[in-house]
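Quick start: what a row looks like.
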Amino acid sequence: MIVRPYYLDLLKTYRDVALVKVLAGVRRCGKSTILEMLQDDLIKSGVPADHIISMRYTSEELDGDMTDKDMYNGIKKRMSDGRRYYLLLDEVQEIKGWERAVNSLLENANTDIYVTGSNSKLMSSEISTYLTGRYISIPVFTLSFAEYIEFKKASGRTPKELLTEYIRMGGFPIVALSNFDVGPAYQIVEGIYNSVITSDITKRHNITNFDLFNRVVRYVVENVGKTFSANAIVKFLKSEGRPLSVESVYNYLEWLEKAFVIYRCKRYDLQGKSVLKTQEKFYLADASLKYCMMGFNPKSVAAMLENIVYFELRRKGYEVYIGKNETKEIDFVAVRRDERIYVQVCRNLPEESDREVANLLEIKDHYPKYVVTLDELAAGNINGVKLVHLADFLLAEDY
C-alpha cells in the first residue's frame, strides 16, 4: 500500500477532535485505502486493534436492507468497554439514514468517527442538514502529480517524463498502480464511470431517457474549460432535434456534481468583487474520464491542463474561481484565507504568452500572478508575472 501523506497528515490534525471526519469523492479515487492507511497509523500510535472498528457498507456486502438502527446496533455490539473507539465507516451512503446512526454514536459513545462516501449525502451542501456543526468535510481527489510520481517511483523515470503519462492516463490509483497501456487503462476508467452513472445517478434518480442524459454528459465533457450555461446546452440539443427543458439540464448537472463526476467553478468579477451566477465552468474529477469517453486527442490537452491545475489548487486548500476582469478572462483566481493568486494556463508560450501575460498585468494589485505552461522554456518572469512549467507548478509545496 502506497501511503498518501497529504490525507494522512490531514486526518492526524483532526484526530480525537469531536467532529465526524467526512471523506468524499468520486468512486475509486482512493477513499477506502485512506481509511486503511489511517487504521495502520492508529495501531502504530498505540491504539489497540480491537478498539478500531472498520465497517464497509458497499451494496455487495450488505445483507438485505440494513437500516440506520441496524448500523448503530451492529457497531455498539462491538464496543465492550467505555474506552475510546475509532470508527472507520466506508461508503456509508448505502445506509438510508446513516447520519442518524453516526450522530447517535458521536453523542452516546466514546468515539472518534471517520466516514467515506461517493454521492450527494456526503457533499457539504447536503451533509450540513444531517450533522450541523458536527463534521469536517475532507474532499478526496484522484492522485496529484506528486502522488503519481510516488506510485511510479520504481519506473526510474524523471518527473517530466511521467508528466506526459499523467496528463494522458489520469490519476485513478488503480491505473497508476499498474503498467497498463492506454487502451486497457481507459477501459478501467470507463468501468468506473459506468458504475457511477448506474449506481449513483440513473438508478437513484430514475432517469428513463438515458440517451439524452448521456448526450448532456458528453456536451459537458466536450466543453471542459469553457464557460457555458444550461440554456446553451438546451439550444445545442434543440439543434440536434432533442428537446430538453432547462430544468432537466440543471438536474443532470446537479446529479453529476453530487456524484463527484464534475466540479463547478464559478466566475468572480474582479471589478465588482462578487461571485457571478452565470457562465460557469465545469471540470472533470479526472482527465482520463474525458479520454475514456472520447478517445485521446492532442488538441484537447490544453483544456485538460486547466483541469489538472484546477484540482491542484483545490488540493492546496484554495477556493477557485474563474476571473472576470471587465472583458478579459483570467483562468483561475485562487483564494485561501487572506491569500490570493492569479493563474493563466496555456500549452505553449511563444504563441500564447503575450495574451496571457497581458491579461494578468491588467489586474492592478500585488498578489502573485502565474502563467503555467508545458513549454520547456518556461522560467523567470515578465514584469512580475512568473512563467512556470506545469511540472514545477504541480510539485511546488506552495505558491
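That is the whole record. The chain has a mean pLDDT of 91. Residues 146-395 form one domain.
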